[in-house]
Specification:
Largest sheet of chain B: 6 strands, mixed
Order of helices and strands of chain A: HHEHEHHEHEHHHH
Helix content of chain A: over 70%
Strand content of chain B: 25-35%
Order of helices and strands of chain B: EEEHEEHEHHHEHEHEE
Largest interface: A-B, 16 and 23 residues
Radius of gyration of chain B: 17 Å
Structural class of chain B: alpha/beta
Largest sheet of chain A: 4 strands, antiparallel
Oligomer: heterodimer
Radius of gyration of chain A: 30 Å
Number of helices of chain A: 10
Structural class of chain A: alpha+beta
Strand content of chain A: 5-15%
């Protein structure tokens, strides 16, 4: 009965219903895209963080026990996630793998020109500068290189700053945009539900005289708001997913090894399902709050 | 059935009802009459708990409805059938749906709706009109829908506020015959009207209200 009443109410004023649904669609379209961007940016940052950012090239005469001691010291450092020892032979193998399509390059080098090294991964890239300074002072270390780079910017400060900027823009800017759009949807819901209540004022008066409880009168209004929220959320999500699926081959090709989206279909739809679930909760909360406020305002009039 | 005890009600400086008392027995058909503005509608609104009296009590059976909490009011109204001069019909719903609304409000099992609606539609002579919309009905038929809606919940009492006020004489007479038939089946009716012709024709007990006071019981 309540569902039928809510549905009929939507059918009677289709343009009001459409405006509510479309505003919610736009909001959840943007939120879905932002969520995916946030996931992808986290993946990019994670990729940089898990790659060895610092390589300490060891002196050719460095003793094994000195190397082991340095490695142990670094492993116990709380700023460092992982330390990997690369011997001269390992370095040659890496070089050969990298140049296997051009065997001549492999033949021209001798194993002795590749120094042994320690590849260091940091827990946070902001520790890089301090760790580099510290490693440089060790007697076994010949030189220190910083491998993280982004689009040609090799300076440590630039890389860290750029990663932080990207992350900040997505998190803060995206959150601000999402909150603004969600608030707009919220206000639109209050206005439209308020208009519906005004339209139904006569009907509500009759229902009260017949002995309808507050719940009986309120439930179709809440259901109507919930329908707007569910339709709007689903449409926004579907449009965003279609866009992501359309763009993902090009994006994956551009970012190559960085898994900005899950490559397995099940995991990808798991992520998208998680986003949809979260959005439905937000949509339902918006609808319930908006319609409750609209009902409260109507009662006061 | 209904007992009104020393009820007074004012709106600011205007005294709408002053020390009103009367009883209505079960199965009785009582007219509440008086000129416009005499307080008839205010009295009905007090019985429906749309308003609270300033003083006095109103008992429906043994329950003092002036003492009810706000959340208990819907249950009171579900026991009272109401018929109004302006019908108060939902225009976007068919006759059947208008009557069903009252059953939905009392929470009756949906499986019982059809039989109950068919029964009252037959009683008020609307069996062949149940699928029509209000815009397709005459004034008399709309009042029958209103009466059917009031009856379908099997109320303890029917309150009618000028039910013939918007109808021509011939239609009014037929509606009154319908009320008479319902009363003969045992329903208690309290009807506010200032139509003297109807009161004279029906020969029922009359409570007269003038300037907020009962002048004849």
């Amino acid at each position: 009965m309540h569902l039928k009443t809510a549905w009929n109410s939507m059918r009677r004023s289709p343009f009001q219903a459409m405006s509510a649904v479309f505003v919610l669609t736009l909001t959840f379209f943007v939120i879905t895209i932002l969520c995916i961007l946030l996931y992808s940016s986290q993946q990019v940052i994670k990729e940089f963080e898990t790659r060895p950012q610092i390589i300490a090239f060891l002196k050719s005469d460095a003793k094994e026990d000195a190397i082991a001691s340095l490695q142990q010291k670094l492993v116990s450092d709380e700023r460092i996630k992982q330390v990997k020892y690369v011997t001269k032979d390992d370095a040659l193998k890496i070089y050969k793998d990298a140049t296997k399509e051009n065997p001549l390059l492999s033949e021209l080098v001798s194993p002795s020109i590749f120094p042994a090294s320690l590849e260091i991964s940091l827990k946070d890239i902001s520790f890089a500068s301090d760790v580099i300074d510290q490693v440089k002072t060790d007697g076994s270390v010949e030189d220190v290189g910083f491998t993280a780079s982004l689009k040609g910017q090799s300076g440590l400060g630039d890389v860290v700053q750029k990663l932080r900027n990207v992350s900040w823009y997505i998190r803060v800017g995206g959150s601000a945009l999402a909150i603004f759009l969600a608030f707009t949807s919220f206000v639109v819901l209050i206005v439209i539900i308020g208009m519906r209540i005004t339209t139904r004022r006569g009907e509500i008066e009759i229902l009260k005289l017949l002995g309808a409880t507050s719940g009986f009168i309120r439930n179709p209004i809440l259901l109507e708001a919930l329908m707007y929220a569910i339709f709007g959320t689903l449409l926004g999500w579907v449009f965003a997913v279609l866009l992501v699926l359309y763009a993902s081959p090009s994006l994956l090709l551009y970012f190559k090894d960085i898994p900005i989206l899950p490559k397995e279909t099940l995991k990808l739809f798991g992520l998208l399902g998680l986003i949809l679930g979260g959005e439905l909760i937000v949509g339902i909360v918006l609808a319930l709050l908006g319609s409750s406020i609209a009902v409260g305002r109507a009662r006061k009039r | 059935m209904l007992k009104v005890n020393n009820v007074s009600k004012s709106f600011g400086n205007i005294v709408a009802l002053e020390d009103i008392s009367f009883d209505v027995d079960p199965g009785e058909f009582v007219f509440l009459t008086g000129p416009s503005g005499s307080g008839k509608t205010t009295l009905l609104r007090l019985i429906l708990r749309e308003l609270l009296p300033d003083t006095g009590e109103i008992y429906l059976e043994d329950q003092d409805i002036t003492q009810l909490r706000l959340r208990e009011v819907p249950a009171l109204r579900q026991q009272i059938g109401t018929v109004f001069q302006d019908f108060k019909i939902l225009n976007e719903r068919t006759v059947r749906e208008n009557v069903e609304v009252a059953l939905a409000v009392i929470g009756l099992d949906k499986n019982e709706w059809r039989d109950r609606v068919d029964h009252v539609a037959n009683l008020v002579g609307l069996s062949n009109r149940v699928d029509l919309f209000p815009s397709q009905l005459s004034g008399g038929e709309l009042q029958r829908v209103s009466l059917a809606r009031a009856l379908v919940v099997n109320p303890k009492i029917i309150l009618a506020d000028e039910p013939t006020g918007n109808l021509d004489w011939e239609t009014s007479e037929r509606i009154m015959q319908l009320f008479e038939k319902i009363n003969q089946e045992g329903k208690t009716i309290l009807m506010a009207t200032h139509n003297q012709n109807i009161i004279d024709t029906m020969k029922k007990r009359v409570i007269e209200v003038k300037h907020g006071k009962v002048t004849k019981v």
